[in-house]
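does this look right to u?? guanosine-5'-triphosphate version
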Amino acid sequence: MLPGNVTVGEEEEEYAEDCPELVPIEAKTTEAEEKPGLGVKIPVTIITGYLGAGKTTLLNYILTEQHCKRIAVILNEFGEGSAVEKSLAVSQGGELYEEWLELGNGCLCCSVKDSGLRAIENLMQKKGKFDYILLETTGLADPGAVASMFWVDADLGSEIYLDGIITVVDSKYGLKLLDAAHLTEEKPDGLINEASRQVALADMILINKTDLISEEELNKLRTTIRSINGLGNILETQRSRVDLSNVLDLHAFDGLSGISLQKKLQHVSAVPHLDQSILTVTFEVPGNAKEESLNVFIQNLLWEKNVRNKEERCMEVIRLKGLVSLKDKPQQVILQGVHELYDLEETPLSWKENSERTNRLVLIGRNLDKDILRQLFITTVLETEEPWTSADPICP
Ligand SMILES: Nc1nc2c(ncn2[C@@H]2O[C@H](COP(=O)(O)OP(=O)(O)OP(=O)(O)O)[C@@H](O)[C@H]2O)c(=O)[nH]1
Ligand SMILES: [Zn+2]
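got this back:
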């Protein structure tokens, strides 16, 4: 069964019942190879977060928890020193780097030194030996770039799918880092502080190391994070300990998340923001979108970056999610964007007859102006409205 066919909670319960405590890896492999559903796509969860936030701690925690998944791990890293340190951290027994090793709970670990695509391609040659991939990025990585790989590479896209992006925030330094990002506004457009970018892209944000800060500091950090990303879930953790259903099988990027996404989009908190830092805006407009015009709208935002706010600054979208109603399509369509890549995918959900069709968008980024975006959507994307006029706020 596809993991997405049941809710995570149910799935956990199901597993808890029929999962033996120790499964020899050989037996499991044979079983998997015989399964007709081997063509099933493997989920990938990206674990990101600034240097030292607790990513590897989270990895180790997931690997040692009972979850009945065979998990492969990729460490997407560069520096030599930390590579050794991390392979030790993951293997916990000091086994050879790039070796496969099995843990008691059936996890398969493979630490891969190559960054990017090659690591995953190599890993996929071992297909059938694992059913989940965890990918830890370096603390300085832009998770958007990593996430994008899965969309660009068509071959890979047929074998794996991006399940979600988890961002671990270091409580102690998080506030400093994120505030610093607010203060460095004079950076040229596009150079957004990596720490806030990692928060902006997250489907789940773990505020980790809460043992190191006061309640007051924690509240402040939570507010800051919420103001950057109004869509992702936030949890507070120590030693990155978190119920696995909160980090695995999120289906944050695919059609299966249609139902929960719809609910979620209704509850996005758009905290008012006075400065120019990253923020979340959301709007909803009833009607049907013309697919071609919707593409132009998105491309202007993500590719051309030529949509301006009231201060004449160009808007920069880092993350985009939405549920839209496309003209002539009975199904609800989900819109996903990370950086310059985006995707429109039909969900299994149909619009109910006689009920209003609507379009709900959430954008996370910089210089975003909700009213302008909404108006632009109404005038350029909806089927009933007048065509675009030259007075629209497009940068030269
Ligand atoms: N006090 C405290 N320390 C923690 C907690 N979680 C992790 N640490 C420690 O923080 C340090 C960094 O944790 P890692 O998991 O290696 O962090 P990382 O994000 O993987 O680090 P890099 O890969 O180097 O960027 C380790 O010494 C952990 O033991 C926590 O909740 N509280
Ligand atoms: Zn690490």
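The first strand starts at residue 42 and ends at 49. idk if thats expected tbh
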